[in-house]
């Protein structure tokens, strides 16, 4: 090859290197990588959540005994639930459970978050102790509390007897059992929501508190005018998650199954527990699927209302 040909070949190579390479741009490659990272979660949610939900929604229009026998029922299961007194009673119990547990859990968790933010001795140990119940299995928690609250021989009633105080039947009195489950649930979940509130408090710039202190604002005024407005997104998240967990049974089903079995006199039978009984004790899978779909619909409506009223934690005054 001559010297002129070599020079021309080198010039053509330089020109090709100077041109942008054909293929995906940097932004497209980053998007592709992001989708690859999301793919396992999307597949897991699709297989283990979306598909069962769609199957449950369809199953609600059939009568099934769980052994492959299906009979089309149309809207029969949905009309039956509105005349089922036990199901309606379980919905009322669920509403009471949610409207008591959610604000109580919210207040206790926020108070603990404000407490553990203080500079006091052994605060790290206290924070760990408050969070520790949440890492224990709910089944174990239920068994331990059932043992502690047993009539006469339980440590709680023995302590009350020692103090000459009344000893109620914590799990045997229909007027007390639901409140007992609520209190145990607060004890179990307060550490988790406390950590969420602590994270929200840490995101508030210190300069706001310094400005409030210069203006002469006390502890309550600083909380009401600085902490509370800037904590609204975190508060919205806590409220939403606690409501969904309460209705769906993530925070109550295990405790009720272990501690009370829905009793006494169905006083602790939440909607999700009654659905479980219809499906896995009585074999009414179609009817249970219809009730579960109805419960999911209520949750979706409640979530949409919360988003509409608060704009995801950003209120009109923000």
TrEMBL record:
<feature type="transmembrane region" description="Helical">
    <location>
        <begin position="236"/>
        <end position="259"/>
    </location>
</feature>
<dbReference type="InterPro" id="IPR035906">
    <property type="entry name" value="MetI-like_sf"/>
</dbReference>
<dbReference type="InterPro" id="IPR000515">
    <property type="entry name" value="MetI-like"/>
</dbReference>
<feature type="region of interest" description="Disordered">
    <location>
        <begin position="1"/>
        <end position="23"/>
    </location>
</feature>
<keyword id="KW-0813">Transport</keyword>
<dbReference type="GO" id="GO:0055085">
    <property type="term" value="P:transmembrane transport"/>
</dbReference>
<keyword id="KW-1003">Cell membrane</keyword>
<feature type="transmembrane region" description="Helical">
    <location>
        <begin position="32"/>
        <end position="55"/>
    </location>
</feature>
<feature type="domain" description="ABC transmembrane type-1">
    <location>
        <begin position="91"/>
        <end position="306"/>
    </location>
</feature>
<keyword id="KW-0472">Membrane</keyword>
<protein>
    <submittedName>
        <fullName>Sugar ABC transporter permease</fullName>
    </submittedName>
</protein>
<comment type="similarity">
    <text>Belongs to the binding-protein-dependent transport system permease family.</text>
</comment>
<keyword id="KW-0812">Transmembrane</keyword>
<keyword id="KW-1133">Transmembrane helix</keyword>
<dbReference type="InterPro" id="IPR051393">
    <property type="entry name" value="ABC_transporter_permease"/>
</dbReference>
<dbReference type="Pfam" id="PF00528">
    <property type="entry name" value="BPD_transp_1"/>
</dbReference>
<feature type="transmembrane region" description="Helical">
    <location>
        <begin position="285"/>
        <end position="309"/>
    </location>
</feature>
<feature type="transmembrane region" description="Helical">
    <location>
        <begin position="176"/>
        <end position="199"/>
    </location>
</feature>
<feature type="transmembrane region" description="Helical">
    <location>
        <begin position="95"/>
        <end position="116"/>
    </location>
</feature>
<dbReference type="GO" id="GO:0005886">
    <property type="term" value="C:plasma membrane"/>
</dbReference>
<feature type="transmembrane region" description="Helical">
    <location>
        <begin position="128"/>
        <end position="148"/>
    </location>
</feature>
């Amino acid at each position: 090859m001559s010297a002129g040909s070599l020079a021309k070949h080198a010039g053509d190579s330089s020109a090709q290197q100077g041109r942008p390479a054909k293929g995906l741009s940097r932004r497209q490659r980053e998007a592709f990588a992001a989708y690859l990272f999301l793919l396992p979660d999307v597949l897991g949610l699709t297989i283990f959540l979306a598909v069962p939900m769609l199957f449950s929604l369809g199953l609600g229009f059939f009568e099934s005994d769980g052994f492959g026998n299906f009979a089309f029922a149309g809207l029969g299961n949905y009309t039956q639930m509105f005349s089922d007194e036990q199901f309606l009673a379980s919905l009322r119990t669920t509403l009471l459970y949610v409207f008591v547990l959610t604000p109580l859990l919210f207040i206790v968790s926020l108070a603990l978050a404000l407490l553990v933010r203080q500079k006091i001795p052994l605060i790290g140990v206290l924070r760990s102790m408050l969070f520790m119940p949440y890492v224990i299995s709910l089944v174990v928690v239920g068994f331990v509390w059932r043992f502690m609250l047993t009539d006469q021989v339980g440590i709680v009633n023995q302590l009350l007897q020692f103090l000459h105080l009344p000893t109620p039947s914590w799990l045997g009195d229909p007027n007390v059992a639901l409140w007992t489950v609520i209190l145990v649930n607060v004890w179990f979940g307060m550490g988790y929501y406390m950590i969420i509130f602590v994270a929200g408090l840490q995101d508030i710039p210190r300069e706001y508190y310094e400005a409030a202190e210069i203006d002469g604002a006390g502890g309550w005024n600083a909380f009401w005018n600085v902490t509370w407005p800037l904590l609204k997104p975190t508060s919205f998240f806590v409220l939403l998650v606690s409501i969904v967990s309460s209705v769906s049974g993530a925070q109550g089903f295990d405790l009720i199954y272990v501690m009370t079995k829905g009793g006494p006199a169905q006083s602790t039978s939440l909607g999700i527990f009654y659905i479980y009984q219809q499906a896995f004790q009585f074999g009414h899978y179609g009817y249970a699927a219809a009730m579960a779909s109805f419960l999911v619909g209520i949750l979706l409506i409640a979530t949409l209302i919360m988003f509409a009223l608060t704009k995801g934690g950003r209120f009109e005054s923000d």
